[in-house]
Amino acid sequence: MSVRAPEAIGTNLQLFMDDHWIATSDGAQRRMHPAVKCNAAILPENPWEMGYVGGMSTVKDGNIYKAWYTCDDASIFDDPKISWFRKTAYAESLDGITWAKPRVGLHEFEGSKDNNLVWMGPSGVLGVFLDTNPDAKEEERFKAVGIRREGKELVVVALASHDGKDWSIMQDPILTEGPFDTMNIPFWDEVRGEYVVYTRAVAGEGSFIGGVRWIRRTTSKDFRNWTGFEAIVAGDTPFEHLYTSACVPYERAPGTYLMFPSRYVPERTPDPDWYGGKGVSDIVFMSSRDGINFDRSFMEAFVRPGPDKNNWHERAIYMERGIHQTSPTEISLYGMEGLRTRSVNVRRYTVRTDGFVSVNAGASGGEFTTHPMTFTGGSLELNFSTSAVGSVRVEIQDADSTPLPKFAMADCPDHFGDDIEGGVTWHGGGDLSGLAGKPVRLRFALKDADLYAFRFSG
After folding, report:
1. Through-space distance between the first and last CA atoms of the chain, rounded to whole angstroms
2. Is the pLDDT of residue 314 over 90?
3. 108-151 pLDDT per residue, tens
4. Reading across the β-sheet that carries 294-295, which strands appear in turn?
């Protein structure tokens, strides 16, 4: 068994998105759970949207879900010389499922301000976030990055707003070393204590790392002055064309970063009459614990194009920015589909709460043991699912892998069912307060079961 210094996890949620916690395993394996397609969140319903809706950013501000999406009128289908992504619109929701488009009266479209347009400046495809930096100014609660053309190149511009509707430019430009022809993703990283932006890789310095499109990151303390770019690393996995990262910190598990890049496959073109470029796309799942080194254990698609032929062409589907818990058992994400067609929309997808990846064992059973850790709190909670005959059992060991008295596998009854925060008990009870602060390992025995996450709670 590998030896590693005990990691202090407090009461933070721990996911199995990578092999970080798995020291030994026998008959158990991690598996990814693809997103489930649900309702259309944003449809092209208004004249200023009939050509395009997409490039959406979502946040939760108090009890309101807020969204900003790029849109355009149908003229883009009539004149190929017209630039795309000229307008940004606003939507909001009480549940993250059904979205409304309030009229904000800020910008004219065809002579009227009776619309939900919030930005029509020289900067399209806004990547928006709610700034939780404790030093952020009230008038800059919402921040965004956009792109504008400067000669033949694109540059990135910083914007700010006090309410997410009335926007102004903070600094123009902030980034000039393109390419930036994608949705650039900014956020305040609470763990690192700085702002980050994810974009395409740097032209001339690895724009096509390993011969493919790639993703890079830059950081800032003030959202105006930025460091040099650093390309993400994905281990020894085969290089594939990846961009439009949709990277976000997963707030339920501090220090966790989830990324949903669009994977472009240029050598496949199902429809030879398609008027756009060659290739097809899908969406993949990646994760990181530092924002640069990403795990690509799963080469399968997180979102497939599906049966709609409008999704089987180049750059047809993209994941948007934002992950929200829309019920105790459900996480919602959003993705654009049908790009460059009149059926374009933003679709809602769901996964089980914290259920992107699980450790799974079949009916014959399996087990694994974690690396050592220290915790605070007094009980152990599991996010798990079993069949009617399945089970999960847990043994607590010391750092040297010796079972602790009263917490051995023989002391743990079968736990079965389906629970997001299922408490673990042993025959002597479930009080672990006497073990808090001491190095321990967890040994899990699974039978026809999935284990998605664990945490020690207060």
Report:
1. 30
2. no
3. 999 999 999 999 977 778 999 999 999 999 999 999 999 998 88
4. 248-249, 257-259, 286-288, 294-295
Structure tokens at 215: 């993703």
**What torsion do the CA atoms of 270, 300, 307, 244 make, to the nearest 10 degrees?**
-80
Beta carbons of 182 and 206 less than 8 angstroms apart: no
pLDDT in tens, 242-256: 989 999 999 999 999
CATH code (residue 438)? 2.60.120.260
The residues near 85 (Cβ < 8 Å, ≥ 6 apart) are 52, 55, 70, 72, 124, 125
* Nearest C-alpha neighbor of 450 from the set 327, 370, 333, 352: 352
Q: Is 423 in the same domain as 317?
A: no
Burial class (CB in 10 A: 0-12, 13-18, 19+), 90: buried
| pLDDT for the residue 203 | 45
Does the pTM surpass 0.85? The reply is: yes
Query: Does residue 245 sit within a domain?
Result: yes
Q: Which residues contact 99 (CB under 8 A, 6 or more apart)?
A: 41, 42, 65, 67, 91, 92, 93
Is 442 found in the same domain as 396? Answer: yes
Residues of the chain above pLDDT 90, percent: 85
Residue 294 · residue 287 · CB < 8 Å: yes
**Residue whose structure tokens are 């630039």:** 83
Query: Could you tell me which residues come within 8 angstroms of residue 376 by beta carbon, excluding any fewer than 6 positions away?
Result: 10, 11, 436, 437, 456, 458
432 within domain boundaries: yes
Do residues 407 and 308 share a domain?
Answer: no
